[in-house]
Amino acid sequence: MSENVVGFIVSIHMGTERRLEWGIDLKNVSSPIEFIDKLADVMAEIDQKFAMKKDSEASGRRTVKSSHRRIPSAGEVLRRRVVRFSPFPSMFSNQLKSIRRTLYNQLAKHTIVIATEEGDYIVKKIYFASARGAARMAVIVKELNKEIDRINKWIKEYAKSDDVSLLKKIFEQYGVLGFPKLEDVEIPEISLSLLPINATAVNPEVPEYLSEMEKAALQEVIDQSREGIIKNVMTYFKREVDLIMAESVEKKRPRTIKKLSELKQKAEDIGLKGIASTIEEIMKALEEGDSERAGRVARDM
Questions:
Q1: 140 with 280, same domain?
Q2: Same domain, 24 and 161
Q3: Is 301 helix (H, G, I), strand (E, B) or coil?
Q4: 206 burial class (0-12, 13-18, 19+ CB within 10 angstroms)?
Q5: Residue 225 Rama label (left phi>0; alpha psi -120 to 50; beta)
Q6: Rounded CA separation 16/9 (Å)
Q7: CA 151 to CA 88: how far, in whole Å?
Q8: Rounded to whole angstroms, how far apart are CA atoms 175 and 91?
Q9: Among 105-109, 138-142, 217-221, which is the least confidently predicted range?
Q10: The pLDDT value given to residue 137
Q11: Which of 30, 172, 234, 261 is deepest in the core (most CB within 10 A)?
Q12: Which of residues 100 and 31 earns the better pLDDT score?
């Protein structure tokens, strides 16, 4: 294969806001609805107070999710009412969502997807990046980890606040057990792994911090020959060109040239000169108004 691909296999892991949530069993609570309403009202007040303190905004709404469980046991049926809630101000989880959104938007900009591993309701992806893209992602992750560090400082500060003491009193008032130890909560940093692929080999080490699903996806990529990885990379570009051309035909989007230009830059960064040249030919045909030739070149990639 003539293309000389040089870059990095990229795997990335970030914790979610689920780390700030707990499930509470209300089986021994005499007034569960009253407890849930009281908890929601107090959390809404805490949201407002913390938002003012941090010069932000709160929605004024707070939901405590309740679910019922029916558990067959020894010929009987046990019924459980479980609430899932976060004792932290909603700003904490909103900030984590914003960080994750920024992270994956940047991944889409600087990398390409070369493998996926599907589990129950989850899809994990393995990416490939040029040296420049990998370096850019390293800088982005470093900056986003500073934001996570700030959230962890908020957590430590909040765990010692009077608001937490009030929440504990509400739990005690209604006889609810299992108030979480907020002082022990810490959001882990975003983990970034860059495994280099050069002219002869792929680094075989799989990071231990990855989940089993992520390890499986990454190991599958590593087990491929270099030619196999290149084939996946080229398949990505073929698929992306097809999608851009289809959008151009169906919706007549004026951004077609811009999208193709960005894709061409990705190909050049990775070392796919032939793919980059083909994309440039498609762009030239479109600029000249020859959509038929552009489509023919795209189909022949």
A1: no
A2: yes
A3: coil
A4: middle
A5: beta
A6: 23
A7: 11
A8: 28
A9: 217-221
A10: 93
A11: 234
A12: 100
| Listed residue (82, 95, 92, 85) closest to 42, CA to CA | 85
58 and 182: one domain? yes
Q: Ramachandran region of residue 205, left (φ > 0), alpha (ψ -120 to 50) or beta?
A: beta
Kindly state whether residues 174 and 66 are assigned to the same domain: yes
**235 and 168 in a common domain:** no
Closest CA to 80 of 98, 64, 68: 68
Q: Are residues 23 and 90 in the same domain?
A: yes
| Among the listed residues 191, 194, 190, the one whose alpha carbon sits nearest the alpha carbon of residue 133 | 194
Alpha carbon distance 230, 9 (integer Å): 11
Tell me the pLDDT band of 206, cut-offs 50, 70 and 90.
low
pLDDT digits (tens, 9 = 90+) for 6-56: 788 888 888 888 889 888 888 777 788 888 888 888 888 888 887 777 665
| pLDDT tens digits for range 239-281 | 999 989 887 765 555 688 889 999 998 888 887 888 899 999 9
Kindly report, residue by residue over 55-87, the tens digit of the pLDDT: 655 444 455 554 444 444 555 545 566 778 889
Torsion angles phi and psi, residue 196, rounded to 5: -75, 140
Range of the domain at 36: 15-99+130-187
Tokens of 231: 């084939």
Neighbouring residues of 198: CB distance < 8 A, sequence distance ≥ 6: 6
